[in-house]
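agent> fetching stored inputs for the glutamine docking request
agent> found them:
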Amino acid sequence: MLNASLKELAGLLAGKKISSVELTQLFLKRIGELNPALNAFVTVDEGKSLAQAEAADALIASGQAGPLTGIPVAQKDIFCAEGWRTTCGSKMLHNFVSPYDAHVIEQFNRAGAVNLGKTNMDEFAMGSSNETSFYGKVKNPWGLNAVPGGSSGGSAAAVAARLCPAATGTDTGGSIRQPAALTGISGIKPTYGVVSRYGMIAFASSLDQAGPMAKSAEDLALLLNAMAGFDPRDSTSLERPKEDYGRDLGQPLKGLRIGLPREYFAAGLAADVAQAVETALAEYRRLGAETVEVSLPNSKLAVPVYYVLAPAEASSNLARFDGVRYGYRAPEYTDLNDMYGKSRAQGFGAEVKRRIMIGTYVLSAGYYDAYYLKAQKLRRLIAQDFTDAFARCDVIMGPTSPTTAFNLGEKSDDPVSMYLSDIYTIAVNLAGLPGMSIPAGFGANGLPVGLQIVGNYFGEAKMLNVAHQFQLATDWHTRLPPLSEE
Ligand code: GLN
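agent> prediction call returned; pasting tokens
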């Protein structure tokens, strides 16, 4: 049951082999047993989850079930969910109970899915290791001394250890793909604008995009079907006809042109990761694909450009946390300004403060042209590199992360080395392209390696099939971490 695909679970529910209440109880029990070691969930509310499961069972009994009805899904704690504490990994929101649902939550509710609980994350989604959460570090189920990646590390660890059948994540610079890679699961960040950002706590609005994290590409397609769709409450939501992201599953890969960016296979890539990626590419050639070398000449600028633009947007977005209407307020202060200052000083962690300061600096009158404007121009060039590359290939592949999971604490005192762990994922957000990561073997230390697949705009259905064909031919995605044995 713990390893069943979403389609299998839906079949079992439809055939009355199990009820949604029983399924939800099964996962809640697992969370009770394994979460103390992993710290993947920050909030579990059995009563709420089981009430949704009961409603799902009624829907199934009345013959109105959809593909996700009755299926428990864990939600990253960045999504506002009515009546649920929603912390975004921060002390600033430790007491915030959302009065409304994010679009993503509404969509899952509409599909009859069960909210299984809120998953741990880096504070305000800033991080690559899940160590910046106010609610403590998340452990990687493949090795309890290793990080699960970030910022969607709680969701990744929860799926990898089978604490839930599937989860949601958000990806501003790699936060779905990098933790998916480091925990041996699959995840997709769609084209910017495909999933509404309404009710998703904002980090860097021009980069933030939500997506699903699950055991397989086939499951991702079902989840993305529920999550995607136009929403007028997000001004960057794209008005496009509803798509079936599973429509291409089953297409042969013969003739598929895979672009391999020269810059992604250069210095800085660990030998064991390179080896696993090469083996995966050999499998793709066996499946009928061709590989061509492409170049993303500006990709070396992606990390510096991102660390101007993302903090700039964050400094503006996070200005709303002032201790006035909701969230943390300092217990003692002398006047209004002192209250603002103390609430923010006490409510935000070190990484969030670092970003707010960088962002405020690059937007300040004297430096705007030198940093912010310059970074915007470079962002355009980075996007153009991909457009040029896609003239010669259908998808781009490479490593998701330069190394397998690093140790807890290893990079905590060295923000730049932490920032570089997103070197292959960040450019994709700057360009607004869809990107995914799928399991592709293991490194020298026995920790998972992820293969990154980048598609052209709106190429999700194609990418999901490219991943699915690989998963039909290999079994990396079915491997279980030691902690998750039944
Ligand atoms: N690790 C990157 C950062 O710290 C990306 C985070 C994300 O995608 N949310 O900003």
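agent> quick read of the result: The radius of gyration is 21 Å.
agent> awaiting further instructions
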